[in-house]
Amino acid sequence: YHQVRDKVKERRPDIKFGTTYNKVMKSVKQNKSLCETNYLDPKTKLGGKKDFYSENAIDEIIRLYDKEVET
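Above: the chain's sequence. Below: its structure in token form.
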């Protein structure tokens, strides 16, 4: 999550990490082509989990953020 945030900040220093950003991240996490969740125990899906984001997720975050800010 922090690495994605840092990469977004590199590309777009004007982005604010508040409510709008969190709303965009929530929609990106739901998209399985942009975010994949790996569990410590994949059979039962219990225990710790880690989200892995594709490189396309950064572009999508910026696109969705711009769309949210415009409205």
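The chain has a mean pLDDT of 92.
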